[in-house]
Amino acid sequence: MKKVWVNKANSFEDAEKFDKKYYFNMTANKRLETMQILREIYSKLKGGRKNESRKRLRRVIKIIQ
Predict the structure, then answer these.
(1) Positive or negative CA dihedral for 59, 60, 64, 65?
(2) Using CA atoms, how far apart are residues 57 and 43, in angstroms rounded to an integer?
(3) pLDDT per residue of the chain (65 residues) written in tens, 0 to 9
(4) Start-to-end C-alpha separation, the chain
(5) Where are the domains of the chain?
(6) I want to staple 9 with a disulfide (CB 3.0 to 4.6 A). Which of 15, 24, 43, 55 is the partner?
(7) pTM, 2 dp
(8) At a CB cut-off of 8 Å and minimum separation 6, what does 31 contact?
(9) How far is 42 from 23, CA to CA, in rounded Å?
């Protein structure tokens, strides 16, 4: 079972600071993996094909490197 945790913030500014700190502490690969998962979820919600978003992400990474 996957653990889920919640951060309760007193303001939107506190929530944004927490989010930035959380994502900056991740490794670059973990941030890319998280982004890709979110893209795939979005693609499924919009009715896109499964591998379509992965192809675009790979091309962008190759161009940047």
Answers:
(1) negative
(2) 13
(3) 888 888 999 999 999 999 999 989 999 999 989 888 888 888 888 876 655 555 565 555 555 55
(4) 37
(5) 12-64
(6) 15
(7) 0.53
(8) 23
(9) 20
